[in-house]
Specification:
Layout: E1 8-12, H1 20-30, E2 34-39, H2 42-55, E3 60-63, H3 69-83, E4 88-91, H4 110-132, E5 139-145, H5 157-177, E6 182-189, H6 195-198, H7 203-213, H8 222-233, E7 244-247
Parallel strand pairs: 1-2, 1-4, 2-3, 4-5, 5-6, 6-7
Helix pairs in contact: 1-8, 3-4, 4-5
Bound molecules: nicotinamide-adenine-dinucleotide (NAD).
Family: Belongs to the short-chain dehydrogenases/reductases (SDR) family. FabI subfamily.
Protein name: Enoyl-[acyl-carrier-protein] reductase [NADH]
EC number: 1.3.1.9
Length: 256
């Protein structure tokens, strides 16, 4: 299948080979996409170059700290000069203080709340604004959410509230950008063992609950998230925008 042939896809948020963003990148490449990446830490940049070399894939890789508007502007200016046009963006970025991912949500500090919102939700708005300028022929933006944005999930706390803002932003961005044929959708992924997930207290219990309760009786992996992301990036989903698709083995449909 070459559903992404001829498309240039920017992936924001690969830290290492376990990252959901890397699972998406692998599937997007297999479906024919030309890839570009942004990274924040030097370590992530090194990891991306190493992974690309291992897979023998050539891609544009640029630095971008999503908390800094100048960094976002510089990154998209560089992407524009190197690639011209982009067709898709995968926003796979989130961060919160570890102390805010355990215990009671009511204890969240103002600083911790704003940090989570800034990196995990506002970054989609800023990235979409920058990406729009490189999407002259329309495009597709996909972000990664979690059930904790819809329900009060133990320990997910401040990140759940950020995911609620992220999913709402998907709808508002879809409304704004639709006239330019830029679509904005989210995937609500089941739990996957990654660097970011390690910060959530009791994460192993969540993985076990999935195996026990999800209709598919198992966890999902980044490749399965990559497949649905590829669908959302492709013209197969050309009539869809503002949607949140669950890739969670059906866990979200289950009652008590
Ligand atoms: P990850 O740690 O591999 O990826 C998170 C990425 O965010 C990293 O690449 C990190 O460098 C980047 N990031 C953090 N701060 C940044 C900043 N200031 N500027 C730019 N980038 C920054 O973890 P992941 O699980 O692959 O997370 C990717 C997305 O998937 C996140 O939005 C996460 O909430 C979401 N998600 C994860 C799970 C899961 O169980 N792992 C489930 C559902 C949704």
């Amino acid at each position: 299948m070459t559903i992404l042939a001829g498309k240039t896809i920017l992936i924001m948020g690969v830290a290492n080979k376990r990252s959901i963003g890397w699972g998406v990148a692998m599937r997007a490449a297999q479906f024919g996409a030309k890839l570009a990446f942004t990274y924040n830490s030097d370590r992530a940049g090194e990891q991306i170059h190493k992974l690309l070399a291992e897979e023998d894939i050539t891609a544009t890789v640029v630095h971008c700290n999503v908390t800094d508007d100048n960094s976002i502007d510089a990154a998209f200016a560089q992407l524009g000069s190197e690639l011209g046009n982009i067709d898709g963006v995968v926003h796979s970025i989130a961060h919160a203080n570890v102390e805010d991912l355990q215990g009671e949500y009511v204890a969240t500090s103002r600083e911790g709340y704003l940090l989570a919102q800034n990196i995990s939700a506002y970054s989609l708005v800023a990235s979409a604004r920058a990406a729009r300028t490189l999407m002259q022929h329309g495009g597709s933006i996909v972000t990664m959410s979690y059930l904790g944005g819809e329900r009060a999930v133990d320990n997910y706390n401040v990140m759940g509230v950020a995911k609620a803002a992220l999913e709402s932003s998907v709808r508002y961005l879809a409304k704004d950008l639709g006239k330019e044929q830029i679509r904005v959708n989210a995937i609500s992924a089941g739990p996957i063992r990654t660097l970011a997930a390690k910060g959530v207290r009791g994460f192993n219990d969540v993985l076990h609950a999935m195996e026990e309760k999800a209709p598919l009786k198992r966890n999902v992996d980044a490749k399965e998230v990559g497949d649905v992301t590829a669908f959302l990036l492709s013209d197969l989903s050309s009539g869809m925008t503002g949607e949140v698709l669950h890739v969670d083995g059906g866990y979200h449909i289950i009652g008590l």
